Amino acid sequence: MSPASTPSNRDEIVAQLFRLFRCGGYEGVSVGDVSKATGLGKSSLYHYFPGGKADMATAVVSFARDWIKAHIVDPLGDAGVPLDARIDAMLTAARDLYDGGTSPCLVASMLVTPDGTTPEGNAGVILSDWIEALSKALQANGVDAAEADARAIAALVRIEGSLLVARATGNLAVFETALEETRNALIEK
Q1: Cβ pair 129, 68 in contact under 8 A
Q2: What single-letter DSSP state applies at residue 119?
Q3: pLDDT for position 5
Q4: What is the CATH number for 37?
Q5: Phi and psi dihedrals of 172, rounded to 5?
Q6: For the CA atoms of the chain, what is the radius of gyration?
Q7: How far apart are CA 153 and CA 159, in angstroms?
Q8: Terminus-to-terminus CA distance in the chain, angstroms?
Q9: Rounded to two decimals, what is the model's pTM?
Q10: How far apart, in whole angstroms, are the C-alpha atoms of residue 38 and residue 34?
């Protein structure tokens, strides 16, 4: 990375970390990888993240959670907008987040560890926030709580599962089809 593209503040570093952790996972990214990708020396990285990689992971999860809140959770909670429009906005945001099915899910990437333990950052909260917001939106439109929870979970399973299959097979139509099926399942009465 050239010095001209070296990040100039913590927010820019975190955005680069997001891309690294998303593609390499917590275990697959070293502080050396971060240094190489950002053009920052290890001492500069430890200035921004005194706890090292654990602090970096926490910052990445916070970054992703903020994105989900702004682009999915908050729009789903906008009762002034019809449910189908909120669902469409959610699916558009999912399409953008996953680059039409070509980019991996940060949560899935962060959960891959040799010993099966959850790494720093508690990435699972991102999906929990999404499920809760979707369930609340459905409940606000008359779907009973148990059914709303079931539909919200099924929607995320469909989106996340199709992302994995689309990326593994190179068949991006799988992801697009799943988004359409998710829409249909969520707006049915």
Answers
A1: yes
A2: -
A3: 61
A4: 1.10.357.10
A5: -70, -15
A6: 18
A7: 10
A8: 52
A9: 0.87
A10: 6
Q: Element (H or E) spanning 49, and its range?
A: none
What single-letter amino acid sits at 125? V
Q: Which domain holds residue 68?
A: 3-187
pLDDT tens per residue, range 99-144:
999 999 988 888 766 666 666 557 888 999 999 999 999 999 999 9
DSSP, residue by residue, 25-69: HHHH--HHHHHHHHT--HHHHHHH-TTTHHHHHHHHHHHHHHHHI
The Cα–Cα gap between 61 and 126 comes to 8
Q: Give the pLDDT of residue 118.
A: 63
User: How far is residue 166's CA from residue 173's CA, in Å, rounded to a whole number?
Assistant: 7
Higher per-residue confidence, 82 vs 26: 82
Name residue 6's amino acid. T
* 25 CB neighbour count, 10 Å cutoff: 19
If one counts the domains in the chain, the total is 1
Residue 2 scores a pLDDT above 50 = no
Check whether 64 has a pLDDT greater than 60: yes
Hey, what amino acid is at 164? L
Q: Which is more confidently placed, 188 or 97? A: 97
Note whether 110 and 119 are within 8 A (CB).
Answer: yes
Q: How many residues are listed for the chain in this entry?
A: 189
Q: What is the pLDDT of residue 120?
A: 59
Two structure tokens written together for 8: 């100039």
